[in-house]
Every structure is written in C-alpha cells, then in structure tokens.
Amino acid sequence: MSRAAERLKLLINHLERSHTQAAIRAEPTSGQTFTHSHPQQLRYTFDTGLLTPEQRLFYEENGFIHIKNLVSEDDIDKFRWEFERICRQEVKVPGLVVMRDVAIAKSEFIPDQKAVSKIQDFQEDPDLFQYCTLPQILKYVECFTGPNIMAMHTMLINKPPDAGKKTSRHPMHQDLHYFSFRPADRIVCAWTAMEKVNRHNGCLVVLPGTHTGTLQEHDYPEWEGGVNKMYHGVRGYNPQHPRVHLEMEKGDTVFFHPLLIHGSGMNQTQGFRKAISCHYASADCYYIDVKGTTQENIEKEVKEIATRKYAIGDEITLKDTWAIRGRLVQGVRTSL
Ligand SMILES: CCCCCCCCCC(=O)SCCNC(=O)CCNC(=O)[C@H](O)C(C)(C)COP(=O)(O)OP(=O)(O)OC[C@H]1O[C@@H](n2cnc3c(N)ncnc32)[C@H](O)[C@@H]1OP(=O)(O)O
Ligand SMILES: Nc1ncnc2c1ncn2[C@@H]1O[C@H](COP(=O)(O)OP(=O)(O)OP(=O)(O)O)[C@@H](O)[C@H]1O
Ligand SMILES: O=C(O)CCC(=O)C(=O)O
Ligand SMILES: [Fe+2]
Ligand SMILES: [Mg+2]
Question: Where are the transmembrane segments (predicted)?
Fold first, then answer.
C-alpha cells in the first residue's frame, strides 16, 4: 500500500471510530443493547464506488464537495434559454414561484425579464426539470441519499446587479430551516454555476464543518437596505467564523449538506449571476411536525403565501405542500 493510501485508511478508521462513539453517546438509555459487531459506515456518505476515500472524507469533515465541469455547456444553455422564455412569459409553468429583488420590486415596475431574481418550483417545466434528472448529478446525489431519490425543491437563481442597497446578498442560513422532513443527513443540495461565479458577482460563501452542528434559530437579519421575503439568516451570525468562497466555473457543481451554513455575497457586476439547483432527499425520509420548533416562523410565512396564492384555507398542511411538489427521480417512492 502506498503511503497516501495508508494514511487515508487510517483516517477512515479514525472517522468510523469517532462516529461510532457519537452514535453510542446519542443512543437513548432505554435498556436496549447497542451492538456494533457489523462494519461501521461513515455518517454522511455511502460508498457507491464513485467518491474516492479522499472525497468522502472531505464531505464528512466539511459538509460540501465541489465537482468541476459536471454539467455540459449545451445543457446549461438550454436551461438559460428556457428561463428567458419564462421571463418573457412565452411559457406558463404551473406552480412556478417568481421572485423579484425587494429593492427592485419596491422602487418601480420594471417590465423587463431582468427584474426576476429567482424562480422556484419548476418541476412542471420539462426543460428545466431535466437538470434534476441528469445521470451524472444523480450518481453523486446517491452517495448522500442512497438509491431512492426524490427531487424536493427546485430553483434557478438570477442574482441581480446590486441596486445599491446590498439586497442582492443572501444571508447566512441552513437550508434545513425550510424543510419539514428528516433525517437531515439524507438530504443534499446540488447547486450548479451557469456561468463563472466569483466574489465579484456573489458566489456561495460557506462555513466549513457547520453541518455537524444542529439547526439554528433563523430570523430576518437587521440590514439597513432591506431583506428579501423569506431570506432568513442564522441568528447571532458571527462574521469572524472562517469562511470559504466557492469560486466556480460554468458547469461546476457543489453538493452540500442542509445544515451547512452558507449564503452569498453582493453582486457587484452589471450581469445577472445565474445558478440552478435542486434539493434532493431520500424517498425513505419522513415528514415532521415543526410546531414548537425554531421552524415555526417559516411555516407561518409559507402558509400565509400559500393561502394568498392558491386561495386555500388551513386544510393544506406543510407536509402536503412538499408531497405535492416532490418528484421521484430514481428508485422507489417509499415514504415522502
Ligand atoms: C417554500 C420553501 C422554500 C424552501 C427553500 C429551500 C432553501 C431556499 C432558501 C431560500 O431561497 S429562502 C427565499 C425563498 N424565497 C421565497 O420563497 C419567496 C417566494 N416569493 C414569493 O412568494 C413572492 O415573490 C412574493 C410573495 C415575495 C411576492 O410575490 P407577488 O407576486 O405577491 O409580488 P407583487 O409584485 O404582487 O408584490 C406584492 C408585495 O410583495 C412585495 N415584494 C415583492 N417581492 C418582494 C421581495 N423579494 N421581498 C419582499 N417583498 C417583496 C412587493 O413590493 C409588494 O409589497 P406591497 O404589498 O407593500 O406593495
Ligand atoms: N448579519 C448577517 N447575517 C447573516 N448573514 C450575513 C450577515 N452579514 C453578512 N452576511 C452574509 O455573509 C456572506 C458574506 O458577505 P459579505 O458581503 O460580507 O462578503 P462577500 O461579498 O462574500 O465577500 P467580499 O465582499 O469580502 O469579497 C454573505 O452570504 C452575506 O449575505
Ligand atoms: O445562489 C445563491 O445565491 C444561494 C441561494 C441559497 O442558498 C438558497 O436559495 O438557499
Ligand atoms: Fe441556501
Ligand atoms: Mg461582498
């Protein structure tokens, strides 16, 4: 065995031991005997033969992994074209949510497609939804979710040039705040750069390792220039925490854990920084009731918007809104 391979093996053994110990600590004292005679697995990833030991360790420790050049130029150009058709209102997509930047929405009506800062829930648009079914993406997703895969939430983000109020920033948050299904470790986001992204146009900013923590309380940050609807940030954000700026090329994809604290900086260019993303979950996940948890505030906002948008009452639950949007993309729809 080479020295490098030997070191990796040692690292894997070390991680397996520490995760086993964590599992033992977390075990309720119910009198059950906890046996660990079977080979232990890493906590956050599965061995499907795709990720190298180094890549698995990187995700286990950092909560994200950057895969270069995963989506082709042709596919990305197709997504861009379809997004433009939607903005020009040449195609109407059932269930689609269109968002405008708050600084632009509150100033004047701009009929231009450029006012759209984000579209969500494009699962009924075959061209855009093709992103969620790309085999090369699903091969990676399976390493985190296992073989039964649901596409739960879809977005195309068109981060606008900042209008001078820093509203183009996305505050630091954990995506799990928005989700009412578990377990968190079987959820993953795929986020693909549709062009070069860097600190100038507002790339993703992540706090490595924060996926090993718990779900934090989220609130609107106190930003002078205003904050976009539902852009909650972790309460008590510490700007001193070590950050990593994920600079990416067109087609590069980052996979990240839903507890990883991340955000994105201001877009200081004149262009609209584009990215497409999908949150996947194992179909074996289960829904939870968020009543009495830190997620009550976001549930309230989601319900208010759903009630206004679809003119419905309290009969629809948060669980229903996810079950309706979710789409099976691989394997069997076992639970979600
Ligand atoms: C649901 C689960 C999500 C899971 C997400 C997983 C992780 C994702 C993390 C995120 O991305 S969090 C941010 C996600 N954001 C949203 O989901 C927001 C969805 N957006 C909407 O529902 C609509 O765009 C919105 C309700 C904000 C406005 O839609 P409308 O069609 O009603 O817009 P309209 O132009 O009629 O404006 C209505 C009012 O909203 C205001 N407005 C529009 N865009 C806004 C904005 N961006 N922020 C704040 N206010 C906004 C607008 O100025 C106006 O205010 P006034 O009533 O005071 O005149
Ligand atoms: N009070 C806050 N609460 C939550 N998130 C915040 C807060 N302040 C800044 N952030 C977030 O921190 C991240 C870094 O933002 P910031 O604009 O400070 O730097 P940047 O644009 O990433 O980097 P730089 O401008 O130094 O190249 C962004 O996601 C931003 O939205
Ligand atoms: O593309 C971005 O700016 C990040 C958006 C994000 O983190 C989110 O919508 O959850
Ligand atoms: Fe996010
Ligand atoms: Mg900045």
Answer: none
